[in-house]
Amino acid sequence: MTILNFRRKKPAPMNGDVAGFIAGYSIEVMPRTAEKVEDFREILPEGTRVYIAHIDGTPIDDMVATARRIAGEGFEVMPHFPARIIPDAATLEDWIARYQGEAGVTQGLLLGGGISTPHGAFSDSMQLMETGLFDRAGFTRLHIAGHPEGNRDIDPDGGMKNVMQALRWKQEFAERSDAEMAIATQFCFEADPVVKWAEDLAAAGITLPIHIGIAGPAKLQTMIKFAIACGVGPSLRVLQRRARDVTKLVLPFEPGEVLAGLAAARADGRATNIEQVHFFPLGGIKTCATWAAENGAPATAKTA
């Protein structure tokens, strides 16, 4: 009887193109996942931008405390501002003031949010921008959400019409705002559709830099669960094909292939508006940071 050996081998480092591509990556955490990390300086490179995801039901006290803790360890902090969970402009102003006053935050990711029914006055990120509160507060950087495979909450027919219209509005807003802006995207599992999307944006006059979402290493079952929940589009087939191979089913899914494709495209002069990588650590923050370090990311803050 043949015995299959599923023990994971330590991966060989990626080529120089991929190492350069992931240098300067950002990463996303939540208050409950951040609690599991004793010291972010032990796992992340110095100066890493850390997004803090605001899930519906998470108290603002927990969000601000997480921002204060991570900023205190020397990292750039970018909390989410999900429009549909913010009841009114007064609450938004209070959140901005608390993040600034208690954690020194001057960056934010503005997005619609993961719920279908708004809690109050806001339903999309454009309404947050129109309040003028971020500009008046002196926020230096604002990121917005991008969807390389579309978003059925915005375009129920599966197209791109409404998404593109919103991005054109945000491009115009960027041109009159003092804040630097960029597009932080949902994660995908294939390079070619992302490259085409990035080039389509450039052709449409949308010049905002793209911070491309990449799912960090995770068990295949975990990856599929998150991909379905987050509305990942056709690139989900990459995971589905892998799931049919029993020899790969128990191994973690790693982002090397999609990163190699994106790095190769940039090296060839395509999709040059893709500025950097943003990791979603679906298999854990430490696991993701370790994988990045093994594949060319800079040293951690404590060893730099």
Write up what this structure looks like.
This protein is α/β, with parallel strands linked by helices and 304 residues long. It has a single domain (16-294), classed as Alpha-Beta Barrel (TIM Barrel). It contains 13 helices and 10 strands. The strands form 2 sheets. An 8-stranded parallel barrel has the order 1-2-3-4-5-6-7-10. β1 (26-29), α2 and β2 (49-52) form a beta-alpha-beta unit. The protein starts with 15 loop residues before the first helix and ends in a 10-residue tail after the last helix.
Question: What's the short story on this structure?
Answer:
The chain is an alpha/beta fold and 304 residues long.
Name the features.
10 strands, TIM Barrel, 304 residues, disordered N terminus, eight-stranded parallel β-barrel, globular, single chain, alpha/beta
| Low-confidence segments | 1-13
Report the biggest beta sheet as strand number plus sense, adding barrel if it closes.
8 strands, parallel, barrel
How many DSSP helices? 13
Portion of residues within helices? 40-55%
Q: Termini, distance in Å?
A: 49 Å
Beta percentage is 15-25%
The radius of gyration is 19 Å
Categorize the overall geometry.
Answer: globular
* CATH topology descriptor: TIM Barrel
Query: Number of DSSP strands?
Result: 10
Keywords: Oxidoreductase
GO molecular function, one term: oxidoreductase activity
Protein name: Methylenetetrahydrofolate reductase (NADPH)
Organism: Vannielia litorea
